[in-house]
Amino acid sequence: MLVVVLTSAGAYALTGGEPAPSAKSDTARVDRGDVATAVATTGSLEPAQTRTLGFAADGTVTSVKVRPGDQVKTGQVLAEIDATDAQERVDDAQDALDEAEEALDEAEESADSETSTCAVSAALSQEAVPVVLVAGGSTTPSPTPSSSPSGQPSPSPSPSPSRSTQPSPSQPPRSSAPPGPSGGSAPGGGQPGGGASSACPGGAARGGDPVFTAQQRVTSAELALAEAKDQLAGTKITAPIGGKVLEVAGKVGSEVGAGSTFVSLADVAGMQVAADFPEADAGHLEMGQTATVTLANRPGEEFAARVVRVSPVGAADGNMVRYGAVLAFEEVPAELLVGQSAGVRVKTSEVTGVLRVPSTAVRAEGTVVVRTAAGDESRTVEVGLRGDQFTEIKSGLIDGDEVVIAGA
């Protein structure tokens, strides 16, 4: 026992009071590689899109073809209600449209016939026919009575002048019939009071255009038929996207209302991760940053992802404000569960191919302990990016130096 004590004392004297290097200290070699910083949190899986589906009409459920958890394809029928009333509305609307189209055809044929009659009347009106008035048993030329002694235009919508002029021997009046009750020209002359003018262009404005009215009726009937067909189609719920059924809100025999949600459908093929980050970390997030995702039911596996959305508005969580972010998988894993938890690590910055050491080898004052053949020595280094695992060294060390891990 005495010999051991003396030997230890002699060793201390030879080193001048400095502790001998510990052969058991952990060390690492300086090398070149990548240095990255990251922020981490937890989140949950959610579908990229969710659809809530319902019927377009009230009715009684007659068929439910899916249940929660079923995988469906685009266009697949999911549920149906009784379509009897909806089909009757379609039939009635179709009958109304057929009648409206027949009325339009009749109006157009009538309009064509009236146009031909007006053309013949216009041609006949170009011939000069003398007018002879019979009064008191004698026949004497007489001017056409004036409808406005003051010489002002008549308020009648007829484009012809409202006052007749004295006929001359060389130009007798065109009309061969007596004047109408209003003092204008005889029917067919286009003057106020003429009965035939309503069948020619200009007369339709007073009695309404039957073709235009019939066309309006057809348009209204077409709209009504389209609406009825939409309601008939709405008696079935079809999948607008392929995905997984999350919820079915009723069963056969249930009474449902138009527009109420009956089936919830999710696109699990585009599953994403929704996560919240503390405000200190959220400031480093950007669109397009790479990330890794871990799942509790798949230990040891990491899945590549990318930040696709960062919320600009935070939400209070106790004394902390957190900001939401959404990450999309580079390749969506199979058999994911909606709502399951996930660990998220987002790479916020990175440098590649730089000189680096383990971050635990760098002391707070920017020094590193280097192990040499002569013993351990402290060196001041210039530090670049401080990552989670490694720290970039810009000067003070060379590739291959052996450094001591702090705390080892």
TrEMBL record:
One GO location term (cellular component): membrane
The family annotation for this protein states: Belongs to the membrane fusion protein (MFP) (TC 8.A.1) family.
Q: Primary place of residence?
A: other
Q: What InterPro entries does its record include?
A: Beta-barrel_RND_2 (IPR058792), MdtA-like_BSH (IPR058625), RND_pump_MFP (IPR006143), UPF0194_transport (IPR050465)
Q: Where is this region: Disordered?
A: 135-210
Keywords (alphabetical) are: Coiled coil
Q: Does the keyword Transferase apply?
A: no
Q: What is this protein called?
A: Membrane fusion protein biotin-lipoyl like domain-containing protein
Q: What is the lineage of its organism?
A: Bacteria, Bacillati, Actinomycetota, Actinomycetes, Micromonosporales
Indicate, by first and last residue, each region the UniProt record lists as having compositional bias (Gly residues).
182-196
GO MF, any single term:
transmembrane transporter activity
Ranges where the CusB-like beta-barrel domain occurs? 273-317
The residue stretches assigned to a coiled coil in this entry are 83-117
Q: Where in the cell is it found?
A: Cell envelope
Entries under NCBIfam families matching the protein: RND_mfp
Q: Which residues form the Multidrug resistance protein MdtA-like barrel-sandwich hybrid domain?
A: 58-261
Query: Where along the chain is composition biased (Pro residues)?
Result: 142-160, 169-181
Q: Which Pfam families match?
A: Beta-barrel_RND_2, BSH_RND
- Keyword Coiled coil among record annotations: yes
